[in-house]
Amino acid sequence: MNILTIMGTAHKGNTRAVVDLFLNEFKDNENEFEEIILPNDFQNFCMGCANCILKGEDKCPHYNDVNKIVGKIERADLIIIATPVFVGSCTSGLKALLDHLAYMWLVHRPKESMFNKVGLIITSAGGSGVKQTVKLLKSNLFYWGVPKVYNYGVTTMKMGGNYSDYKNKDKIKKQVGKKAKQIKKALILRKVGLKTRFFFKLFGMTQKNGWNKVDVDYWKKKGWLDGKKPY
Ligand SMILES: Cc1cc2nc3c(=O)[nH]c(=O)nc-3n(C[C@H](O)[C@H](O)[C@H](O)COP(=O)(O)O)c2cc1C
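A: This is the predicted complex of the input protein with flavin mononucleotide.
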């Protein structure tokens, strides 16, 4: 199994510590691990040209960099997206990457492989802003087509240090173990739920009279407008 972690921060602090706890749960000879550390591994901001959506993803000025990352995302069985909460949201490094992936949302040109993955959002925050950060990241994974997304967050009530100094570190470890078990089960089942099916159908209907030729051609080529499904 391939496990990809997209780290919204290069800082080795709270977020890194929780990610490592999860990765430990998946250590096994059969699992491969990949990481994208932001902003080190991707340093572009979306220019707003919308070429990716309107002309094709290969027309993005940052196509080569984006495509390498998309290749890693496509290979993953489990996608972990981890970020500290910065001013009520994910880090700017992570947001900059997500902006480049708008073209592969369900409403445009979703990748077939996404419907067979499981997602995990990991957040760490001083005290507030977790809810909206998780919502933002969950919706990205959902609209890429990932049908099952888990989340886990820690609230540190302090800056600096890491979980090894926390009073509640045993509780965190226990919770991580429990969540990892649920994720392992989901990776065996890999079920596509009603919500994903509903949105796939809805966006298929909009493609039938679609306004964006690149999207319509993509859906036609996949056979999705003739009843074929990516799951
Ligand atoms: C620039 C900046 C902005 C932050 N904004 C928030 C925030 O809006 N809400 C919050 O609860 N904590 C906020 N924090 C605290 C961090 O989310 C928290 O300390 C987190 O655990 C840091 O993760 P790290 O140790 O992995 O870097 C902020 C920290 C920084 C550096």
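The domain at 2-191 is CATH 3.40.50.360 (Rossmann fold). The mean pLDDT is 95.
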